[in-house]
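Design job #97: recover the sequence.
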């Protein structure tokens, strides 16, 4: 016979726990004349059996049920599934901790966060020490703060020699310009890159153009073009962020943004940039959209990660109206324009592949080019020409 303190020591439980077992009638003590509780060898074994059942994840109440009746396989299966879910949840927690520690990739986490809490994601990256430009690049490009620096090095190496940083062409820029109903005197171009569209606009108009981008190396290339084309008096550049445009309100007749509004989000861009426009001024922007109601699974998967805010043309149309603008025209950029973007991009990525081995940036670029080649037509860039009321 064992006193309660002896039983507690033997099975590694507290007195309180054993008293609770007794309250649930899982064990039952005999009383000595002096009132002390004593337990039999049978009670020791009963506690050990319960402890084994608890290892399968049962609560004490479930243990009791298990001891008193035949095993119910449905209940067991239910518990089994619950436990499996708990384990995979714990595995996810472990993976997240490991990625936050920098031991592992943080890509899946950044992709999720960027989709479900885009503003909080950027703010948090800034607290981690990224400036706005790099935070946006984590969001759109590397998607992995641990590998970001290496990723951007490779990414910029690919793009530094390429003229186009997005699907844009003289033909489409000219077509969009021709749809404006008045001659602009002041144009602000946002996210101009190396400025191919800037030069087209400057040649088409008599406007004063300010071209902004947050990448100084791209603006340096545009500066060279401005010199070559003798456009010093009409075109100037400024390195600044599209999220903090430092200009007077009601200043511009046209805001031009080819393949760049998505960076801060089209809806936010439309809301924020409008105040810089004179009344009846135009916002002209191009954006990646679905061109079919039934895109293939691989396109869906790809853009879910790379541009979760991709919309149909109709959704963008209603967002433009909701922003208080009037949509005047819209058209899809030509396949030729796409080719002039991704053919040189693919060539450059292939050239660098042997030099940049195991590069995530190269692999992402190649995947994207393959998707363009196989699925173009399901998605595309769409120009929107909208007027301030
Ligand atoms: C996809 S590229 C398009 C470039 C150019 N419009 C074209 O069509 O070739 C996006 C451009 O936006 C610029 N960019 C990214 N974040 C920016 C920001 N926060 N403010 C201003 N420009 C930004 C990039 O440096 C890049 O030149």
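Job complete. Output follows.
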């Amino acid at each position: 016979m064992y006193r309660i303190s002896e039983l507690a020591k033997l099975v590694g439980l507290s007195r309180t726990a054993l008293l609770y077992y007794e309250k649930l009638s899982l064990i039952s003590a005999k009383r000595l004349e002096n009132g002390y509780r004593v337990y039999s060898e049978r009670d020791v074994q009963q506690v050990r059996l319960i402890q084994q059942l608890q290892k399968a994840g049962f609560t004490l109440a479930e243990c009791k049920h298990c001891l008193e009746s035949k095993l119910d396989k449905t209940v067991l299966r239910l518990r089994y599934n619950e436990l499996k879910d708990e384990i995979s949840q714990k595995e996810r927690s472990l993976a997240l901790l490991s990625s936050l520690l920098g031991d592992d990739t943080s890509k899946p986490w950044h992709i999720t966060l960027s989709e479900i809490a885009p503003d909080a994601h950027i703010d948090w990256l800034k607290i981690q020490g990224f400036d706005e430009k790099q935070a946006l690049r984590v969001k759109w490009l590397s998607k992995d703060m641990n590998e970001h620096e290496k990723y951007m090095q490779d990414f910029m190496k690919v793009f530094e020699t390429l003229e186009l940083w997005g699907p844009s062409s003289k033909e489409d820029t000219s077509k969009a310009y021709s749809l404006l109903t008045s001659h602009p005197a002041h144009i602000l171009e946002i996210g101009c890159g190396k400025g191919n569209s800037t030069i087209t606009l400057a040649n088409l108009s008599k406007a004063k153009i300010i071209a902004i981008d947050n990448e100084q190396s791209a603006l340096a290339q545009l500066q060279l073009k401005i010199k070559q084309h003798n456009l010093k008096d009409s075109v100037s550049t400024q390195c600044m962020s599209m999220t903090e445009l430092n200009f007077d309100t009601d200043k511009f007749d046209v805001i031009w943004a080819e393949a760049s509004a998505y960076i801060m989000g089209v809806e936010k861009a439309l809301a924020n940039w409008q105040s810089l426009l004179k009344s009846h001024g135009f916002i002209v922007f191009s954006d990646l959209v679905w061109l079919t109601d039934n895109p293939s699974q691989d396109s869906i998967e790809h853009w879910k990660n790379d541009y979760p805010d991709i919309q149909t043309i109709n959704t963008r149309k209603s967002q433009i109206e909701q922003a208080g603008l009037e949509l005047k025209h819209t058209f899809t950029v030509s396949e030729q324009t796409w080719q002039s973007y991704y053919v040189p991009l693919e060539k450059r990525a292939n050239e660098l592949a042997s030099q940049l081995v195991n590069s995530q940036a190269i692999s992402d670029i190649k995947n994207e080019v393959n998707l363009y080649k196989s699925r173009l037509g399901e998605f595309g860039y769409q120009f929107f020409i909208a007027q301030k009321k």
